[in-house]
Amino acid sequence: MPLLGNPRTLRLPSRPAARLAVAGALALAALAVSAPGARADGPAPVTPASVDALVRDYREDTGLPGAAVAVTRGTEVVHAQGYGETPSGEAVTARTPMAVASVSKSFTALAVLQLVEEGRVELDDPVRDHLPEFVTADPRADRITVRQLLDQTSGMSDTGFPSFTRPRPDTLREAVEGMRGAELAADPGTRWEYHNPNSQVAARLVEVVSGRSFADYLEARVFGPLGMDDSSTGDTDRDLPPSAHGHLRVLGRAVAAPEPPAFGNGSGGVLSTAEDMAAWLIAQNNGGAGADGTRIASAESVALAHTPSPVSGSYALGWSVGETRSGARIVEHSGDLFTSTAHQALLPESGYGVAVMANTGMAYGDASAIVEGLVAMIEGGDATVPQPQGQVLLLGTDAVFLLLGAAAVLLSGRGVLRSRRWAGRRAGAPLWRTAARLLPLAGPPVLFAEVHRVVGFLYRGRDVAWIQVPYLYPSFMVLLGAAALGCAAVAAARLAALARGRADWRSRAAER
């Protein structure tokens, strides 16, 4: 359950798609004004009707199949609702479990901070003091602290340890044991670099220190106390229920697809609902206490989770800190899977919290786009819902790539049919010259086989598995696959024709 995007700078898309009026409700106004953080001269309160209108119009503009949305203010749930359908055609409701992807890192950080409160762990303790099984090929890893795992400054990186192309583990214990060959890309505490295994090590630390599985720990210490009855965490894509899978888009149409194989517990394994995420947002905005006063963490721990270190820049402990367009402080984290996305945001000055889960993949950014629209609405600005950047461009490029793929099929068919003529013209040519003519046909098949390395390079060294690339660029992979198969077919036909031609030449020579 991977994430390829860079959540350190969670700048949201900015292209508008539709203009929406913010609806008001007098009955809710007095309640909203009295909520924590409300200001008498502030913008009109957000209402269920205004949230519904925003999401409805966004779905109509983009074709987003389904989403779950939670909006809170202080200790009140403004709205928690599901929209549209799951890949299997069932309605998305406020209690439909969906993947929150890397939003899970904030849950992992809170679990560690609970152990810190109990005195069982210190943030600046070396990880190996509590987790002796955390051994790598780099001796510098002995100095990695618990804090550095959570704020992504451990020095670990995809360049030193592949997150996705390694053999997939099935448990957190296997995930940590599989790091024995890992090398660090920097000294611990000197550089920020987003790396999913950081959170997996942190989750395994929670297991070892607490003496219970990470799933059981979250249920007992977070989900249960907050009444998040439909939330859970899983290890791999096999643990995703049908409702947590999502869609790709091809030619602007959503196509249901299973999530590709990956391990994600601790870094991206939490499943939750609109109702449950509302409870989580309230606790985060209420100093670690739920709506009924049940406390899962101290106010100091929650504040610490929302505070970046000098080395990490804007990244805190499972959260990222920045500013909205109006200059207000925002504490947030996005989550990207290949068939779904999620985004959570806290606005401490107004007391609002927002969470969105959308069942389209990371190439489309739907969850973040909806969050941006909701934040704009909360701030009383232009509540225009932006389409994710490049969505119109993707529609055009899909059409171009698919047309080129069809052309590749036709051209390769023509090449196969004309292979004997091609071979006949080269019957007496030197072998090296004939081989040079065939060599360009190897380009598309080689690129098709190694495309994940190219994508990883374009993602600044992130580790990418081959199976993930069709989820990112489905129409391009159709084109590349058609070109690779076509080139292989033409090359095989030409080689066969050359072999037959040379056999005929030797036969005629023998007769003479």
TrEMBL record:
The keyword GTP-binding does not apply. The keyword Signal applies. Keywords: Membrane, Signal, Transmembrane, Transmembrane helix. The chain crosses the membrane at residues 392-417, 438-459, 471-497. Residues 51-360 form the Beta-lactamase-related domain. Residues 1-40 form the signal peptide. This is CubicO group peptidase (Beta-lactamase class C family). It comes from Actinorugispora endophytica. The lineage of its organism: Bacteria, Bacillati, Actinomycetota, Actinomycetes, Streptosporangiales.
